[in-house]
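Entry type: protein chain
Record version: 2
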Amino acid sequence: MKVLVIGGCGFIGSHVVDKCVQEGLSVRVMDTRPELYRPPLPDVDYVFQDLSDHHRLADALSGVDAVVHLASTTVPSTSNLDPAADISGNLIPTVRLLEAMRASGTRKLVFFSSGGTVYGIPSQDPVPEDHPLNPISSYGIVKAAIEQYLRMEQQLHGLEFVALRPANIYGPRQAQVGLLGVIGTYLRKVAEDEPIEIWGDGSVVRDFVHVEDVASLCHRALSSNTTGSFNAGSGEGTSISQIVEIIGQTTGHPLQPVYKPGRNFDVPRVVLDIARARTAFGWQPVVSLQRGIRETWDWVRQHRALMDQQV
């Protein structure tokens, strides 16, 4: 199988690429720039272009059996600032991608949706896939809309799709700057002896899942004929205050957070029900939160040491 991984130079995408290569798949990556933290892999074909450049999609899809779509121009905390840009940067290019896949004959797609935003404020705990979709951010609305287009493409044109709805993904190679990834952000701040900030009182609960577990699920989805939407999480909830405590224990640096006002787009609690993915793909997350944070801390320190050597 030859797989095109759109966004394959990003944090999650790079781990998906690793898993696909490890399992013997042929991989082509489409992204706007190379990976930040390591050189190009020798057995991977890299194409550097934007997903919105739909005129060049045919070349990227040539000879491809399946597509993994991870690209996004927004995150939940920025999407509401300009919903029109969210639509033009993510929804429209994905619809164009479906058209290009139809023209090329590529009929399999794994799309990375969002388990943290498409449900809105959940009325069930844990949250199953059949929970109503009531997102309160443009990011979640666009992800949900894309899933609907995937279902339309399946019904009308035979697309085999899996929409993964990940929880809060963390792990090595997560960008140490920017707005995503509370665990990676906190670990970087500890490494640089900077104060950490908590939006609200620390009681917000999230489902944290290691990136390698998500990459494993993605590979299983590629290798299966099963279609539909599937949660991808740990199935367990951890508060931000608990994360701070684990990080303090792991790093040996007890933390004194700076508390800031809560944000209106932060859903109070989201824990995903992952029974459907377990049953459909025989998948089970295996990396514990303590182990995952320890491995991520080791990577943060190694990366910081390399940066210090280059200065």
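Comment: The first helix runs from residue 11 to 22.
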